[in-house]
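Practice problem 4.
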């Protein structure tokens, strides 16, 4: 991790993927390229994920993993998927994190980017669009748009503070967890809903992981959203100069 010579003037809230055992791994990737930004990587609670249970209905040890919300069934190739349970509560938790981060660092919301990988990327989109303050950007790597989230109000653009925020989705055509077509369809849904700055970038041969080239694009997006910026020290109140009017000389009257 690179040493920071000055206080951070921007922040990235990064949400890890389903089953991630090392939530802070992305900090190692982004800290040196973004020395002026605080990289915050919260950990999801361990919970049962239904789609990871064995087919005979018995609970498997691998079904209890770090997860932001439950996924009841495998993601489809296309179409809507309403098999997410607990995403509303996860969105509230992310909003609390954003509020605490902005207050603790004394930042404007426009100096904060929210992003994530896989399930964390899906949550970053849902929580970013539902957040009440305008953020610097939203990034989703190897994730998806939670189709069916209208019930949570996440895609109600009439009251969305981030409908004009840059939103980038990075995805590989070899992703076997969330397919490229499923992710692309979600990006199109966002555009049809009125999102103006949706960027979808596919990568050839990329599986459900971050590669050097996709990581570089991720960092470029974060640099753009969290441009280097120096805090201006609060200037002391300048004393107001009062111009003194010349006093007219009094002429002595001759007697």
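Answer key:
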């Amino acid at each position: 991790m690179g040493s920071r010579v000055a206080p951070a003037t921007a922040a990235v809230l990064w949400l890890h993927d389903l089953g991630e055992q090392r939530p802070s791994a992305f900090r190692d990737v982004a800290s040196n390229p973004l020395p002026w930004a605080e990289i915050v990587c919260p950990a999801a609670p361990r919970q049962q994920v239904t789609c990871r249970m064995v087919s005979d209905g018995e609970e498997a040890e691998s079904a209890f993993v770090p997860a932001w919300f439950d996924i009841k069934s495998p993601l489809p190739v296309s179409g809507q998927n309403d098999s997410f349970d607990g995403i509303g509560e996860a969105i509230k938790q992310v909003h609390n994190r954003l509020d605490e981060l902005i207050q603790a660092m004394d930042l404007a919301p426009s100096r904060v980017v929210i992003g994530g990988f896989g399930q964390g990327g899906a949550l970053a989109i849902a929580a970013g669009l539902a957040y009440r303050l305008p953020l610097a950007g939203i990034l989703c790597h190897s994730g998806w748009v939670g189709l069916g989230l209208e019930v949570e109000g996440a895609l109600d653009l009439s009251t969305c503070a981030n409908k004009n925020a840059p939103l980038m989705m990075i995805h590989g055509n070899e992703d076997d967890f969330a397919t490229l077509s499923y992710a692309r369809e979600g990006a199109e849904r966002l555009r049809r809903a009125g999102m103006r700055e949706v960027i979808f970038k596919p990568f050839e041969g990329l599986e459900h992981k971050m590669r050097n080239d996709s990581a570089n694009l991720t960092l470029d997006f974060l640099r753009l959203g969290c441009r280097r910026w120096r805090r201006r020290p609060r200037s002391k109140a300048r004393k107001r100069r009062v111009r003194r009017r010349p006093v007219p000389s009094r002429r002595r009257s001759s007697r």
